[in-house]
What we know:
This is Pyridoxal 5'-phosphate synthase subunit PdxT. Pathway: Cofactor biosynthesis; pyridoxal 5'-phosphate biosynthesis. Belongs to the glutaminase PdxT/SNO family. By secondary structure, the protein is an alpha/beta fold. It has one domain (about 5-200): Class I glutamine amidotransferase (GATase) domain (Rossmann fold, 3-Layer(aba) Sandwich), CATH 3.40.50.880. It is built from 6 helices and 12 strands. It has helices at about 15-20, 35, 50-60, 60-70, 80-85, 185-200; strands at about 5, 25-30, 40-45, 75-80, 85-90, 100-105, 120, 135, 140-145, 150-155, 165-170, 175. The strands form 3 sheets. A 7-stranded mixed beta sheet has the order 2-1-3-4-12-11-10. A 3-stranded mixed beta sheet has the order 5-6-9. A hairpin with a 2-residue loop joins strand 11 (about 165-170) and strand 12 (about 175). The longest helix has 16 residues, at about 185-200. The relative contact order is 0.18. The model has no long low-confidence stretch (mean pLDDT about 95). Glutamine (GLN) binds near residues 46, 47, 48, 80 and 109. Glutamine binds near residues 80, 108, 138 and 139.
Amino acid sequence: VPTIGVLALQGDVREHARALRSAGARAVPVRRPQELEQVDGLVIPGGESTTMWKLARAFDLLDPLRKRVEAGMPAYGSCAGMIMLADRIRDGVAGQETVGGIDMTVRRNAFGRQVDSFETDVTLPVLQPPGPFRAVFIRAPWVESVGDSVEILGRIEGGERTGRIVAVRQGRLVATAFHPELTGDFRVHRYFAELVRQAMEEG
Ligand code: GLN
């Protein structure tokens, strides 16, 4: 059984832990470098990326996070977590840093303000069983551009935002602009837990 950490500096940690357990993983909170060393994979939850960045700095976690990601630890970031895994961000605050790892440019708060949060069905062909995924967007970012090694897993399919990229994968790193921990449909967590299992086998 893979042990998957949830970065517990800020954001909706509990919901991800519950989703990971439903996906057959052991879920543990990660707040310190020693805790980070013990996990097979990591979820970076939604919340507020500027706060998460400052806390990661304050808790001496930013460099350990970068090192583990560079060394091949699987990681999944949702919303603010997607921002944290982006190599480049737009509309960040002055000096805002990320962990990075995915060769993409992500725009913060791209869909508008809190009142503009919304839900829509997104098709993610990698999920099992297949079928539309109810995606909840809360002051969400979107992916403006990706490098050649990034696989696009899902886009917005209706309305004026049609075509916007909202789910990606590069190697062992996965990111979604939406919150899959809130709806009781844990296929995204199962997909990530499976990726962690495969990474453990590969070593
Ligand atoms: N707007 C937030 C940020 O910039 C993300 C919102 C979320 O994670 N739900 O980090």
